[in-house]
Amino acid sequence: MKILSIETSCDETAIAILECAGNETDARFTVLGNTLLSQVALHAEYGGVFPALAKREHAKNLVPLLEAALEEAELLREDTRSIPEEIRSEIAAILSREHSLAEAFFEFVSECETPPIDVIAVTAGPGLEPALWVGINFAKALALLWQKPLVAVNHMEGHVMAALAEKGDEESLLIRGVQMPVIALLISGGHTELVLMKKWLDYELIGQTRDDAVGEAFDKVARMLDLPYPGGPEISRLAEQVRTSDVLVSELGHPMSKITLPRPMIDSLTCDFSFAGLKTAVLYLLKNRPPLDDTEKMHLAHEFEDAVTDVLWKKTARALEETGARTLVIGGGVSANTHIRRTFTHKIAADYPQVALRIPAASLTTDNAIMIALAGYYRALRREFATDITADGNRSLA
Ligand code: KG4
Ligand code: ZN
């Protein structure tokens, strides 16, 4: 089954084409085409994602990415076709709020054959609704013209599947040998949650943040330190400088290296998180003092990352204990964090050797369309085709 997948939930526009085979317990994927345009640099000026800009950029990027993905997959066949008036007006209605996208769409599709894909999968949420709508309407227009079934994908399920996938030979990805129950720690700019999967695609929320998401905390603290958006990678880069320094942190004798930040809710008897207090602690620390120099920023980033990692680990360990999970997956943009990956790898090996840890390949941690195709395939296997898809900014897994 060939799946064309579309992701526009936040600030990455992405389209992929995957050849998918097998069943839930033993699935194999070959990436035929994979394209992505990141808007991160554009949003950096605003210090965060600016929804109206995201929507406009997605609308501009989708047709060129579709063309590039089809070309890479060698599925682009040029041909002039006439679109029946009835279908043309239906598509025009679907894309009525995206004038330039509609124009580019008609121009492109009237010059190529219907490609031999079987299913179109699109992110329906969670995410920014204006951004989600652009991808959904584009998917609907393609599905109508090419007469293909549509699948609505939960973005977080995409992160779970990307984490479960292992690299096979060449361009292939494999999802197999997954021992249930699975605990998924999902950490991104909008989410921090622990989800239990006892059976395939059957989710139960075990814990979640009561305020800020962990990626949001990284981004906000980075902003306080005058670091560019997105802040996660910047904080991580600074903190790593302390960790890889030849001199022991305590020996650096720097006053900032002695600071301890709170680990909110670390000993609470739940699997819930809270990061607002940690962020506020940083804010108070910076109040009434001159801007930090580079060394001070390094130490603060280091302690902040330690505090976050301690809490994430403690809550995850609690979830593993409570559920007897056999597999742990970490997904979402923050799972790109070197220190979190390293800590979890060590702790699992030392304390929970019976648990298999699955972390996504670095290229699959932040938003992309491959993960949407993986999750789309699992839904397509169950024939969960959607006739009408709506954007749901808060779409939840459980
Ligand atoms: O999953 P994602 O790409 O988008 C959302 O669905 O939110 O996650 C983006 C988040 C941002 O908050 C970004 O700062 C964070 O992931 N992030 C990181 C790292 N790379 C990305 N946080 C910490 N360390 C990183 N290396
Ligand atoms: Zn994401």
* CATH level-two architecture of the largest domain: 2-Layer Sandwich
Rg estimate, integer Å:
22 Å
Mean pLDDT equals 95
CATH class of the largest domain, named Alpha Beta
Low-pLDDT sequence parts: none
What's the end-to-end separation, in Å? 27 Å
Assess the beta-strand content as a share of residues.
15-25%
Bound molecules: 5'-O-[(R)-(carboxyoxy)(hydroxy)phosphoryl]adenosine, zinc ion
Relative helix content: 40-55%
The DSSP helix count reads 13
- The domain tally reads 2
Order of H and E elements: EEEHHHHEHEHEEEEEHHHHHEHEH
Outline the biggest β-sheet.
7 strands, mixed
CATH topology name of the largest domain:
Nucleotidyltransferase, domain 5
Coarse shape? globular
How are the strands ordered across the major sheet?
A: 5-4-1-2-3-7-6
Structural class: alpha/beta
Looking at CATH, the homologous superfamily of the largest domain is ATPase, nucleotide binding domain
How many strands appear in the DSSP assignment? Answer: 12
Give a structural overview.
It is a single chain. This protein is of the alpha/beta class and 398 residues long. The protein folds into 2 domains: 2-165 and 364-381, ATPase, nucleotide binding domain (Nucleotidyltransferase, domain 5, 2-Layer Sandwich), CATH 3.30.420.40; 179-359, Nucleotidyltransferase, domain 5 (2-Layer Sandwich). It has 13 helices and 12 strands. The strands form 2 sheets. A 7-stranded mixed β-sheet has the order 5-4-1-2-3-7-6, sandwiched between helices. A 5-stranded mixed β-sheet has the order 10-9-8-11-12, with helices on both faces. Strand 11 (327-331), helix 12 and strand 12 form a beta-alpha-beta unit. Helix 7 (214-224) runs parallel beside helix 10 (276-286). The longest helix has 30 residues, at 294-323. It is globular and about 75 Å long. The model has no long low-confidence stretch (mean pLDDT 95). The structure holds 5'-O-[(R)-(carboxyoxy)(hydroxy)phosphoryl]adenosine and zinc ion. The site of 5'-O-[(R)-(carboxyoxy)(hydroxy)phosphoryl]adenosine (KG4) has 19 residues, from helix 7 and helix 8.
